[in-house]
């Protein structure tokens, strides 16, 4: 498990955001509409904890809550056995944000994995930034503090234009 190791400040080379990430996690940038995928090192056949950042255009002036209500409905429709655990409005990087905690399953050829997702969404400069951290359900307690540190270090650039 890599939840307890050090984190480092990561700056995306083109999407103008920063966040804290575990030093040893693999990083893949700018693939298929996703700004960043960071994944813990392999450790056997288990689900690998990960952090994903997506950026999308949102309607000018739309509050984060409206945008995230739509996103929540999309999660319900697309994730297998989706269960909403908690939704909380707050602040991230000095802007209104929404945190969502949920559970779903992922099937592969070897197993059905129970997964917890902790997602933060914030609007900056007319863009919606979504930070999603995922981990095997039974490991969430081990990763919750790390995920909090990742989110606390998230800084979108409100001047960024895709």
TrEMBL record:
Q: Where does the source fall among the domains of life?
A: Bacteria
Concerning InterPro entries, the annotation shows: Mog1/PsbP_a/b/a-sand (IPR016123)
Q: What is this protein called?
A: DUF1795 domain-containing protein
Please report the organism this UniProt entry assigns to the protein.
Natronosporangium hydrolyticum
What does the record give as the organism's lineage? Bacteria, Bacillati, Actinomycetota, Actinomycetes, Micromonosporales
